[in-house]
Design goal:
The protein is mostly helical. It contains 10 helices and no strands. α1 runs antiparallel to α10. The chain is globular, with a radius of gyration of 19 Å.
Length: 290
């Protein structure tokens, strides 16, 4: 448990759920599906297909990371008494709802439209729950003091939404047949810039608070700032994942071409992965020394 597979799960599941939330926020009525330009219809379809795939792949990584993978199905026996069971049920519900939404994609009619609206609302609620769940689960781990902070919930939530927008930008760049991003893509990019700034503030606050905590939390912070995890923290998380996307925004002034969207999206995804890597590895490595 809490190996590299868990880190991949946190990244993939958070990005998949975040991608769906972003899609719902920027196209709540699914108007791109029927009335948008052809390349934007392709973008909508890719988002709807990729989100559940990421959650499924992430869940597979988590199962493979278990000491006894064959006992994974036991978590469904008591979903009301275990956070792990609750998380598993949320993942299954999210994938099932998106599978239904995908099945309704090519159908038409007033009844189908009403059912689709209900499915999208339910899927959005479950997606938000999936995003929030991991942060609360880690914060509740009494054995690892470094994770016992509300900042972990806030960081994972902001990072999941940011990774969702980043994927949205990358998919736009892959689907676009135009030289400049449309308005809703520019709004998504500016929102991501805001989330990156929020992540920087939350990360600094989190480390400041935890550095003043107990010995285990202090040691975890030292490993990130000056120790064996400093390369991942300063270069990959802060440099590539947080500062580089902001630099792209400053250079392009918010009027990104598809290539700039792709570069920014990929950089943000790198940062989102290494945020999870740094927080997980710092906590687990300190635990192994106690």
């Amino acid at each position: 448990m809490f190996g590299f597979g868990t880190i991949l799960y946190l990244f993939a599941a958070g990005a998949g759920a975040g991608l769906y939330v972003v899609k719902t926020c920027f196209d709540p009525r699914c108007e791109l599906k029927g009335r948008g330009p052809r390349d934007m219809q392709i973008l909508e379809r890719k988002v709807l297909l990729l989100a559940p795939v990421l959650v499924c792949v992430g869940s597979l990584f988590l199962v493979l990371d278990l000491t006894r993978p064959e006992r994974f199905l036991l978590v469904f026996r008591s979903p009301d008494t275990s956070l792990i069971s609750l998380g598993a049920c949320l993942l299954v519900a999210f994938v099932a709802l998106l599978a239904l939404e995908n099945a309704l994609w090519s159908m038409s009619g007033s009844l189908v439209a009403r059912v689709s609206v209900v499915v999208r609302i339910c899927a959005s609620i479950v997606a938000v729950a999936v995003i929030l769940y991991t942060g609360f689960f880690l914060m509740g781990m009494k054995a690892i003091p470094f994770w016992r902070s509300p900042f972990v919930v806030a960081l994972f939530t902001a990072s999941s939404l940011s990774s969702g927008i980043a994927l949205f930008l990358v998919l736009f760049a892959a689907a676009a047949r135009r030289s400049k991003a449309p308005r809703f893509v520019r709004r998504a990019s500016l929102t991501d810039a805001g989330l990156v700034v929020v992540e920087l503030g939350l990360l600094a606050s989190f480390l400041a608070v935890q550095s003043g905590g107990g010995p285990a939390s202090f040691e975890a912070c030292q490993r990130l700032l000056t120790g064996d995890l400093a390369w991942a923290f300063w270069v990959m998380l802060v440099g590539v994942g947080l500062l580089f996307p902001l630099a792209i925004d400053l250079v392009t002034k918010g009027a990104e071409a598809p290539r700039a969207c792709a570069a920014k999206g990929l950089a943000v995804l790198v940062g989102c992965f290494f945020l999870r890597y740094c927080i997980m590895e710092a906590g687990v490595r300190v635990l192994s020394l106690q």
